[in-house]
Amino acid sequence: MATIHEQIDELLAADLHDELTAAERDGFHAHLVECAECRQAFQEGKNMNRILNETVAGKKADAGFEQRMVSRFRDRVPKRRGLISLVTDLLRVRAVQLTAVAALLLALAQMGKMITGESATSVQRRENSTIMSELARDRDTLGASRASGLLAKKDGRTDGVDVAAINQAPAEPPPPPPAQDKAESETPLPVTVYNTEVQRRQHSTAPKTKSAEFKDAEKPDAAADVSAMEMVEEPSASPSAVNPAANRKLIRNATAELEVPSFDEAIQKITAFAAEEKGYIATTSSEKQENGKLRGEVVVKVLPDNLDRFLGKLRGIGELKNQALTTEDVTKAYFDTESRLKNARLMEQRLMEILKTKSNDVADLLKVEKELGRVREEIEKMQGELKFTDSQVSFATVTIQLAEKNMNVPAAFLLKERATLALYAVEVEKTYNDIKALASPKVQITNAQIDRDNTGRISARLSLLLAPEESEAVIERVKGMARVENFQVNTQRVSQGGDGLGENAKTERDKVELNITLSRDEQETALQQTSLRIQTPEVNEKTKHLRAIAEQQSGRIRSSSFSRDPNGREYANVSLRVPMKNYSALMQSLNALGKVENVSVRRDDRPNSQTDEANAPADVSIQVYSQGNIVSQETGIWATLRRTIGQGAAALMWSVRMIGVAIAFLAPWALILGLVGWVARRVSRARAARKVAAEDKAGLS
Amino acid sequence: MDSSEQAIYRAAIQGDRDAFEAVIRSFSRSLFAIAYGILQNREEAEDVVQDTFVKAWKSRWRVRDAAKFPAWLSTIARHRARDLARRRRPEPLPEDFEATDMVEFEGSGQQADLDGEVRSALAQLPELHRVAVTLRYFEELDYGTIEKTLGLTNGALRGILGRALGLMRKRLKPALASTG
User: Chain B closest CA to A33's CA: distance in Å?
Assistant: First the structure.
């Protein structure tokens, strides 16, 4: 606790402001009596308090200050009406603000989705997740399989150790089962010296010490141990006895591709060569091509030393297209197998000895027998391997591909004709049936189809197969049934059994394929299209006259209509089709109907088709019309006024709609910007307040 | 704090204009003292008080605890006054320094000098000290009310005022001794 003297400033001020407790005041005044310095300070403080009261008090707010503040507040913050104030007050509630912002963001996101039309992201993510889970599952199974593999390996090892333990010490009681713990399964390690470490002597030291322990504990006989040591010595001797340079094991193979004038002759020659080189033909095969040429393969075995000479002789038979010679050195693998075989034989011998000498326990004997069987099987397998390699080495294999010359010359040619015919028929169905009636053994219909859709369009397709001698006559008959729009013939010469020019090959004519397309002539586009207007006061009468003219010129009316508008004008539209040959006569007679105006003609020439132009259709569309009343009913001041007001209202509505669109577009962005600004202002305020607080603290201390 | 006062604050926060006007009446003087303490200028201080109330009305929904309403008001006033003071910073001395002429203190020249010295000593105090001094000498408020207004913790004001007066006293020592 600080003394009064130290706290003089604080106590002095509090005393002057009458903020001391009674005890504090007593203590303070008692100290003043004692301490001259504090008394001096007290005097000064009192003076300053008086001066401050005099000077500062003069600056304080005047009497009307509060009222002034209230009235200015009223001026600056006018009262708001009910609904607006309610809405603004509501908006100040934090929960409402948060909800509004959330709704806005949601709406924006939805709008964005609608605009971009994307909804695939979530699906894609789900797909990804399934892929991930599959991957995870794969990894799990992999781990499991690896674990089980390890387990299997471990089992295998313990099994091996067990079996070997019997080899080592057959007179002992049975070894611990494989299910025992690791320490126990490791104890019979000396066996590894015998079984697997035979060819790796450098590792034998550590196991040997263990074998000593084993010996002490389990008392194996010394003979077994010594023989095990002998085994260790053995294999290092056998590879050193081999002279690698003198006795290499090489497998030689050759392949050759020959082109010969005659296959049989070549086979004979090859057989002779093989016999000369002390070889033999292993296999032959041959195959006859479509054009009568032969192709085949011969496999020859010859002595490796004679191989090069044999290949040289082969060149004499025909043209050598391709030749390859390969040599494989199997020396190392061969001698590895050989030494393993030697070891296995020793093992067999040893097992036999055990079987003869120490046969106390039946179970042990059975185990030894089983092991013996396994070793013998191994020996046989290795012997077989060596024999196979020997046979490979003692004879070289030559594979010869033979092909006769001019393999690709065609044997014959076939002339294939394909015709397409497009027809316009007045009655599609009748023509279709007529064509179908042509069927006979020499005229086969392979496909026939008729389509009619709901608009009345009808078309048919037929495919015919014609005997060559009948084809021309049939095509001519079909052409006569309807108007030909298009006819195409495609002839192709196809070589058989090869390509190129066959000098001796004969040419045959194949069946002719005919494809027919039938359409109704109404569907045909007109060769020439004409439109014109005729002005006449008697529309109805003239139209009737027009129909008569059209019929005269063997034309067909395709459509016609009649209408009258509010102004009393009459219109008749007639569209008709005539053959091209009657077109000009029709145009001539039209002049008699009235004043012909606005004539326009369009012609579609078809340069590549064999159209018969005189019968090709020409379309004419004619509008017959009258003048009508001169003055329209929809005129005058009122009509104009009505129209103007209507248009004005429409324009106004349009602008209102546009303003609405603009607001809907801009409002969310304005709101977001406002929100960001508000947050930024709050943050800067908070920072400033923190700074001031720090200043205050500094002032306090 | 009085529960009736709290009720008024709460009503004012919730948008009751009459309650808010009552708040204006009861706090405008203290806020004026605070603003004056910072700005040393009556007109500016008055503007600050006005702005403070308008702003407080507009953002009243931010106050969560009605008991802290006075402290919140004074914080707004201090911020605004400080903003204003910062804006006119280039001026070296308090604005009404030259206004301390002979009109108000026509007595002795010595008295006028003393007055000026007091003012400059006051101006050299830290802001919070200055505000505390003006609050005390303008309104003669008790320490508890001043603490509540400034948002200070219990008992801090005694130290602040003691230090402020002590600093001023040391600065004015010669003048005070002579007036003794």
Answer: 18
3-state secondary structure string across chain B: CCHHHHHHHHHHHCCCHHHHHHHHHHHHHHHHHHHHHHHCCHHHHHHHHHHHHHHHHHCHHHCCCHHHHHHHHHHHHHHHHHHHHHHCCCCCCCHHHCCCCCCCCCCCHHHHHHHHHHHHHHHCCCHHHHHHHHHHHHHCCCHHHHHHHHCCCCCHHHHHHHHHHHHHHHHCHHHHHHHC
Closest Cβ opposite residue B138 in set A10, A44, A56: A56
Mutate to test the interface with A, among B165, B167, B170 (most CBs of A within 10 A): B165
pLDDT attached to residue A230: 42
Structural tokens at position B93: 């001395």
CA–CA dist B70, B68 (Å, integer): 6
By C-alpha distance, which of A557, A524, A516 is closest to A457? A524
pLDDT tens sequence across B93-137: 454 544 444 333 334 455 567 777 777 888 888 888 888 888 888
Closest CA to A290 of A462, A408, A453: A408
SS3 A553: coil
Question: Are the beta carbons of A530 and A621 closer than 8 angstroms?
Answer: yes
CA–CA separation, A123 and A132 (whole Å): 14
- Residue A493 and residue A413 in contact, taking contact as beta carbons nearer than 8 Å: yes
Q: Sheet holding A595-603: strands in order across?
A: A556-564, A570-579, A617-625, A528-535, A595-603
Report the distance separating Cα A572 and Cα A564, nearest Å: 9
H-state helical runs in A401-488: 428-436, 471-481
Taking CB atoms and an 8 Å cutoff, what residues of chain B touch A77? 54, 57-58
CA distance A279 to A256: 17
C-alpha span between A309 and A303 (Å, rounded): 10
Nearest to B162 among A9, A49, A65 (CB): A9
Which has the closest alpha carbon to B177: A48, A240, A616, A248?
A48
Task: Give the contacts of B60 (CB within 8 A, at least 6 positions apart).
Answer: B12, B13, B15, B20
Chain A positions in Cβ-Cβ contact with residue B136 (cut-off 8 Å) = 17
Task: Indicate the helix (H) or strand (E) that contains A302.
Answer: strand A294-302
The residue among B102, B116, B32 whose CA lies nearest residue B74 is B32
- Which residues, 6 or more positions from A601, have their beta carbon under 8 angstroms from its beta carbon? A528, A529, A530
Nearest-5° angle of CA B152, CA B154, CA B158? 85
Nearest of A613, A609, A614 to residue A421 by alpha carbon: A609
Task: Return phi, psi of residue B74, to 5°.
Answer: -70, -30
| Helix, strand, coil share of chain A (percent; to 5) | 55, 20, 20
* For B115, nearest residue in chain A (alpha carbons): A55
Closest to A534 (Cα-Cα) out of A566, A564, A561, A573: A573
Place of tokens 């707004």: B76
Taking CA atoms, what residue in B is nearest to A45? B169
Spatial contact of A284 and A298, defined as CB atoms under 8 Å apart: yes
Distance CA A443, CA B154 (A): 121
Q: Which of A407, A397, A398, A402 is nearest to A297 (CA)?
A: A402
Residue A684 has phi, psi (to 5 degrees) of -65, -35
> Distance between CA atoms of A454 and A456, rounded to whole angstroms?
5
Please write the tens of the pLDDT for every residue from A298-348: 998 888 888 888 888 888 888 888 888 888 888 888 889 999 999 999 988
Give the best residue of B17, B24, B36 to mutate against chain A (max A CB count within 10 A): B24
Q: For residue A229, name the pLDDT band (cuts at 50, 70, 90).
A: very low
Q: pLDDT band for position B139 (50/70/90)?
A: confident
Which one, of A344, A371, A354, lies nearest residue A224 by Cα?
A: A354
Distance spanning both ends of chain B, measured CA to CA: 41
